[in-house]
């Protein structure tokens, strides 16, 4: 992964985290990495534990950020969530999978254009 893409992803995760905090979510964990993959954010929304996939795009050339959450990625996130819950061994009344899609285009003059954040609650 290029440094530019990594930085865009990190910035997107910070924007998503701030957005969720403003909506009243409590951030439980961030960037949970295992050999199988990574969970971007885990948040508490009332009694519900929310596994959040953050996708950030600076161009629509390859589709929107939300469209990039493929069937394979959804399956991987489900597997990672199960592994996380088993490792935590704590009772969780309910879980949910959300997607936060961020579009942050650069304008022609190199200045940052307006950022769009879409939150898909219960995305899958």
From TrEMBL:
InterPro entries: Restrct_endonuc-II-like, tRNA_endonuc-like_dom_sf, UPF0102_YraN-like. Transmembrane segments: none annotated. It holds the Pfam family UPF0102. GO terms for molecular function: nucleic acid binding. It comes from the Bacteria. Belongs to the UPF0102 family. PANTHER family: UPF0102 PROTEIN YRAN (PTHR34039). This is UPF0102 protein BAG01nite_06470. It comes from Brevibacillus agri.
